[in-house]
Amino acid sequence: MKLNKTTTNTNFEFPKTQTGVEGLDEITEGGFPKGRPTLICGGAGCGKTLLSMQFLIKGILDYNEPGVFMSFEETAPDLTMNVKSLGFDLEKLKQEKKLVIDHVRVERSEIDEAGEYDLEGLFIRLGHAIDTIKAKRVVLDTLESLFAGLDNQAILRAELRRLFMWLKEKGVTAIITGERGEATLTRQGLEEYVSDCVILLDHRVIEQVSTRRIRIVKYRGSTHGTNEYPFLIDEHGISVLPITSLKLDNKVSSEIVPTGIPEINEMFHGGGFYRGSNILVSGTAGTAKTTLAAFFANEQCKRKERVIYFAFEESPDQLIRNMKSIGLNLEQHIKKGLLLIHSSRPSLNGLELHLLTLRKLIKEFKPSAIVIDPISNLISVGSAHEVRSMMVRLIDMLKINNITAMFTSLNQQNENRKPDLAEDSISSLVDTWITVRDMEGIGERNRGIYIIKSRGMHHSNQVREFVITENGVKLLDIEFGPNGILTGVARKTNQLNKKVSELKLQDELNRKDREIIRKRNVLEANIAALRNEFESAQEELNILKANEELQSKLNVQAHTNQKKKK
Amino acid sequence: MKTQQAEWQLRLYIAGQTPKSIMALANIKKYAEELLHGKYTIEIIDLLLNPQLAEGDQILAVPTLVRKVPEPIRKIIGDLSNKEKVLVGLNIKPLTTA
């Protein structure tokens, strides 16, 4: 491949052949180098043959590129059998002239060397196979067997060099597998010849849990992911799990998803969670985490949205039964196909396989919300670091798909409220963190719920007491006492006290009312008496005035009479 | 071909008329005439002409001499210049000495 000097590097795209292996194309940024050999090395049982086989089969099925598998170890029937369990039918592909499997048997006891020779026979076989089906992809698994079968290393090495040159000339994208050596990548130093792309597979067991990892050691002419990425082999073959987005540039939604409990909706000023956000519900044992999660799932189903409930503690039936006891009918949603409950034991397999199961189910079911109950059980499977890296990948995947996720986490009961492993590893990753806790008092235990954080939304700072009844979860109104918020019996006592004093007050009021009436009556009586007094005084005065008038009248009459007499 | 009767059935795989092929053919003819006179057949297969035949006898290297009969199948690769090795490989030598 020659770079055209007039084009700038930014416009140039390195020609690549897509592997069709989930995740591998992402970390290689498009696949293996087209028309060049790629070396896959690793120890025994790390999946070299499977990866190469998947490369061929996916090439045939997905990209219509016929392939040749030249096996130096396993026979064609064995290979066919082995990949049949992955759902690939090699016989059919062979009949369709899309695939050639050539088993090259190198049996040392059968072969004697006498004089000069070359490996033209191998070239002819391979060339013939490539030409008959016009193959674009070739796998040589494992060339190193030649070293065990033939003595003349000098010839062998020269011929291998020629083989790789020849493969390049043929323009086929080839995979060469090699067993891992002590100090070198491959036992026979194949990396010397195949220098365009080297991929290392590794299978490690740490604390009884095995993890397979893949790393791109080198990739000439292209950028690539450099980390070790875990990969899995399951019934669909290999899938690599890269951290899906290294940049945090996923789109966000400001749509609100209700929590399923009206009072909790009120605690969030937005009225619920943002769609696509992650919610952690943490708490000690028996604080109704599962109940909250089930209500959340139920609410989403009611809104005709699809939900997957991953239960790591309870079986689906048990969960349904238990939720029925608090008035939650999950069965109807399952029947409608809106809810899927997936139960498994956390110790069933490693974290990576769990993650893969999650991914797979999410891909198939396409939920808009998921519940993982509880996430802390997964933590028992791996170390803090592993859990964190898994959580990052999980949350990334959920964010990209805009899936709202609720995780529950069981906390260790500890005195000073130090965050334990579960919280520590994920609390900074989640957007919303709700804690349910026991509030132990005089001879009773009450449940309290509060929001520790809620990114991008105002939220209540109060600890709300809640009760679980036959009709579901109910948050009680806040009861303030002299020493803060009251719960349980204290709440009841306070309510009683309040009632008593209310009654007393009412009594007092009534009494006062009556008194005032009485007082008014007295007042009115007094007023009447005074008025009477006043009236009699007035009357007296009037009488006096009348007398005087009469007197003066009489006096005038007498005077005139006197004058007349004169 | 009178392979049915021949006590020794040999097959030589070559890839074109390369110096190695020619030498191998000359060598095996010489040894066979010398030691297995009249009791052998040599079949020459040019893989350039018949590439599909390489798979049947599991041919990797060229030239390869295959002893089909007597059983078991033996293969000798190389230009057969080492007479000792060829005879031991084909199990001819002990036969003649015995």
Compact overview of the structure:
The complex is a heterodimer of chains A (566) and B (98). By secondary structure, chain A is α/β, with parallel strands linked by helices.
Please explain how this structure is put together.
The complex is a heterodimer of chains A (566) and B (98). Chain A has 566 residues and is an alpha/beta fold. Chain A has three domains: 16-240, P-loop containing nucleotide triphosphate hydrolases (Rossmann fold), CATH 3.40.50; 256-460, P-loop containing nucleotide triphosphate hydrolases (Rossmann fold, 3-Layer(aba) Sandwich); 496-544. Chain A contains 16 helices and 25 strands. In chain A, the strands form five sheets. A nine-stranded mixed β-sheet of chain A has the order 5-4-7-8-3-9-10-11-12, with helices on both faces. Chain A has a nine-stranded mixed β-sheet with strand order 17-16-18-19-15-20-21-22-23, with helices on both faces. Chain A is rod-shaped, with a radius of gyration of 44 Å. Mean pLDDT of chain A is 83; it is low at 1-9. With 98 residues, chain B is of the alpha+beta class. A four-stranded mixed β-sheet of chain B has the order 2-1-3-4, covered by helices on one side. The longest helix of chain B is centred in the first third of the chain and has 17 residues, at 19-35. The model of chain B has no long low-confidence stretch (mean pLDDT 81). Chain B has a single domain (8-97), classed as Glutaredoxin. Chain B has helices spanning 19-35, 83-90, 93-97; strands spanning 8-14, 40-46, 64-69, 74-77. Classes of the chains: A alpha/beta (566), B alpha+beta (98). At the A-B interface, strand 6 and helix 5 of A face helix 1, strand 4 and helix 2 of B. Strand 6 (111-113) of chain A pairs parallel with strand 4 (74-77) of chain B.
